[in-house]
DNA sequence: TGTTGAAATAAAATCGATTTTCTAGTATAA
DNA sequence: TTATACTAGAAAATCGATTTTATTTCAACA
């Protein structure tokens, strides 16, 4: 994902650091719950303190880092409760956004949806191969974003993106080497079809089921690993 | 509203500035769309640049300020489209959160709801009197927050608070001197009753209607003032 | 032993100054 | 005229150092 601040001209130091940090958190390189010592981070990343602080502050806003005044920063912990909330909110917001997109979108939107679907279907997801997994994730996120993008609700899109990145973190940490058994391609295709044909109820229901299945998959792997309560 | 960062011990400079800025934006003292010159702000508020930058960054995250790299900051503009989105999202999220609260809340929650209702009903809203309006707003927000708080979904609560503050800004700017004609007390009481009696469908529907009415009120005043499209 | 308090240390927050990047104005060339 | 290149000037971004606050250590005392 790019920086949270609209970029003009040269990218700013803070923006680059933000991207790097987000990547490291979403991929578990900075472990959930880890204490972030800004001074050590600064030297290890070889950047200045001011832009680092700024980047961290932005990620606090995004919910990937937690701040406590005068006590520094922590990578937001993961927990079953948090995963459940992320899933519940996606279930509430994504189908809603999809319905709005179906209302607002025209031929351009339909074209974008079918295009994103095509690319996704052509992108192999090879468990264990990081490059393939990364490519697949880009295509997958692009498809899902395209579906909902024409809701024309910028605040909603921002919430949506934030939820997706939280969800991706769980995927990265727990789904590195696991093959997806169910036929995701069929699910995506069915959603896209229904969307393009303006069958809003079908599309929303299919998308909801898709989200649920994906999360259940994750939940199984994680429950074994983490206690039920957050913290 | 307090600082977005959990406070320990002494409040930090950045936190205080954040509170001040949020207040000024929400009350239209810093006008919607206004360019924020950090250096001038710094001297006019008589604070340092670093904590000011930090405070501004937090408010960017909250959606009250917009940032563009290397081009500075702008108070988020207001528009009919934005008000509509804020309202639509509240309609989607608040009744949902209320249902969850009804599921999770026990006697403590019921007590808190009825308490907040009582205080709100005892707090007069005198149009034109800033102190009275501010007190009423505190009580009103506390009541609404209490209703949804036991959804036990921290991310949802954060979204909710952010939407409420955006909504409050429109209220402050356009509803300064206007009396509320409909009987808000009855609406609040009906919602609280239904919630406490666990009539989830009733409570959610009443809350939704309440939100709609409040927004319609605002929308009328604003449409006269602003064009339909943002920016 | 366990507890309290002062000193030392580590980390976060802030400051003041510098560097980089944008913006607007002007002059020159097509 | 229109477009392009240059040049202050303004504003944003960043740096390095300082100040403030929290945490840890350790000794004195109960």
Low-pLDDT segments of chain A: none
CATH first level of the largest domain in chain A: which class?
Mainly Alpha
Structural class of chain A: mainly alpha
Strand order of the largest sheet of chain A: 1-3-2
Largest interface (C-beta under 8 Å):
A-B, 41 and 41 residues
- Identify the overall geometry of chain A: globular
Q: How many domain modules of chain A?
A: 2
What do we call the CATH homologous superfamily of the largest domain in chain A? Answer: GntR ligand-binding domain-like
> Using DSSP, what is the number of strands of chain A?
3
Overall helicity of chain A: 55-70%
Q: Looking at CATH, which topology of the largest domain in chain A would you report?
A: Four Helix Bundle (Hemerythrin (Met), subunit A)
Number of helices of chain A: 9
Largest sheet of chain A, in brief, is:
3 strands, antiparallel
* CATH architecture classification of the largest domain in chain A: Up-down Bundle
- Overall residue-averaged pLDDT value of chain A: 93
Oligomer: homodimer
Q: What Rg of chain A do the Cα atoms give?
A: 18 Å
Distance between the termini of chain A: 27 Å
The SSE string of chain A, one letter per element, is HEHHEEHHHHHH
Please state roughly what percent of the residues of chain A sit in beta strands, choosing from under 5%, 5-15%, 15-25%, 25-35%, 35-45% or over 45%: under 5%
Briefly summarize what is shown:
Chain A is mostly helical.
Notes on the structure:
Chains A, B: This is Transcriptional regulator. Chains A, B: It holds the Pfam family FCD. Chains A, B: Residues 11-78 form the HTH gntR-type domain. Chains A, B: GO terms for molecular function: DNA binding; DNA-binding transcription factor activity. Chains A, B: InterPro entries: GntR_C, TF_FadR/GntR_C, Tscrpt_reg_HTH_GntR, WH-like_DNA-bd_sf, WH_DNA-bd_sf. Two copies of one chain form a homodimer. Chain A is mainly alpha-helical. The first copy, chain A, folds into two domains: 13-75, Winged helix-like DNA-binding domain superfamily/Winged helix DNA-binding domain (Arc Repressor Mutant, subunit A, Orthogonal Bundle), CATH 1.10.10; 80-223, Four Helix Bundle (Hemerythrin (Met), subunit A) (Up-down Bundle). Helices cover 67% and strands 4% of the residues of chain A. Chain A has nine helices and three strands, in the order αβααββαααααα. Chain A has helices spanning 13-26, 38-45, 49-62, 80-104, 107-122, 130-149, 154-174, 184-196, 200-223, and strands spanning 35-36, 65-68, 72-75. In chain A, strands 1-3-2 form a three-stranded antiparallel β-sheet. In chain A, helix 1 crosses helix 3, helix 4 (80-104) crosses helix 7 (154-174) and helix 4 (80-104) runs antiparallel to helix 9. Chain A is globular, with a radius of gyration of 18 Å. The model of chain A has no long low-confidence stretch (mean pLDDT 93). The structure holds a DNA duplex (30 and 30 nucleotides).
